[in-house]
Design a protein that fits this description.
The chain is α/β, with parallel strands linked by helices and about 300 residues long. The protein contains 13 helices and four strands. The chain folds into two domains: about 120 residues, no CATH class; about 140 residues, no CATH class. This is F-box domain-containing protein.
Length: about 300
């Protein structure tokens, strides 16, 4: 007779003993039928000693989840990458319930990664913090995160001009490295076209990691700097972001980017999601505060970009 599942070593402890790499550990915990059964709470919850049953194990999984929900801390987790660059696994606030046993960890992670508010703050279209947060999760936790409707990416406006000044060689090297996956920035003539290409590379790099039904759906929100507090300042920054940054997806200077047809489809799909959230933010601004002064220009840009992204 085999021992109960919660008495066996976890994948993490087994990895430490056998010296497995992170890649092999992810493979071992890929979301197969067994893992999805655990997510759906169809796996038995059995005590170590059958003569001394655990009362918690006699409850239906729905009631256990309600109990765990009362014990969960109500937190908003900031997943932004700090200036120190420390690994996210050391900064992420995890409930203590995740460290009791395997079975509880599976059930509590269903609540924690499925209901917690996660927010990533993005500056200069650098989504590295959000991407590393997702990459650091185990496959089962990623599966739980896909059902979370409280995931938010806060894009700070205005987006800084990405083109360095002449003579700033180190910054030019960083820009070139950021863009080389999609092409050579020096093939674009003029500072304006180079800026469009850099912004395109930042967006495309993020959109290519998005896969419907596989990766979580993040809601995009747009905030401005504390020094720009006027209502029309907010609207101006939204329109500028739409005109200068998001609309770069349809600029001629990016048409020759190194993307195949499938990759272009992912970029366009991601662009549609961001455009949809931008329109909602603009609509909310007009409803709560006052009518837009740039509504005609905004509607024209939205129509042109949506037509391109849906083509």
């Amino acid at each position: 007779m085999s021992s109960p599942c919660y008495t066996r070593p976890t994948a993490a402890s087994a990895a430490r003993e056998k010296g497995k790499t992170r890649a092999s550990l992810d493979t071992a915990t890929s979301p197969n039928s067994e893992n999805y059964a655990l997510v759906n709470f169809n796996s038995p919850f059995q005590p170590l000693d059958p003569s001394k049953p655990c009362l918690l194990s006699t409850l239906p999984p729905e009631l256990r989840l309600e109990i765990f929900r009362y014990l969960m801390p109500e937190v908003h987790v900031d997943i932004s990458l700090p200036p120190s660059g420390k690994p996210l696994r050391n900064r992420l606030l995890c409930p203590r319930l995740l460290h009791i046993c395997r079975m509880l960890r599976h059930e509590v992670s269903y609540l924690f990664y499925g209901d917690t508010y996660f927010t990533g703050y993005v500056s200069c279209l650098t989504f590295r913090g959000v991407h590393e947060f997702e990459s650091d999760l185990f496959a089962l936790h990623k599966a739980n995160l896909t059902r979370n409707r409280h995931l938010r990416i806060d894009i700070r406006l205005p987006v800084k001009d990405p083109i360095p000044e002449a003579g700033e060689d180190e910054l030019w090297v960083q820009v070139w490295k950021k863009c080389r996956r999609f092409g050579n920035i020096y093939d674009r003539q003029g500072k304006k076209h180079q800026a469009h290409f850099v912004w395109f590379c930042g967006l495309a790099e993020w959109f290519l990691t998005r896969k419907a039904g596989v990766t979580p759906r993040w809601t995009y929100a747009f905030t401005i700097g504390y020094w720009r507090i006027g209502v029309y300042d907010v609207e101006e920054d939204l329109v500028d972001f739409l005109r200068d940054v998001l609309s770069c997806l349809m600029c001629k200077c990016v048409r020759e980017a190194k993307l195949n047809k499938k990759e272009w489809g992912l970029v366009k799909s991601g662009g549609l999601e961001m455009l949809s959230d931008l329109v909602e933010d603009h609509k909310f601004l007009n409803t709560v505060y006052r009518p837009s002064r740039q509504q005609e220009e905004f509607d024209g840009l939205v129509s042109s970009l949506r037509k391109f992204l849906q083509s």
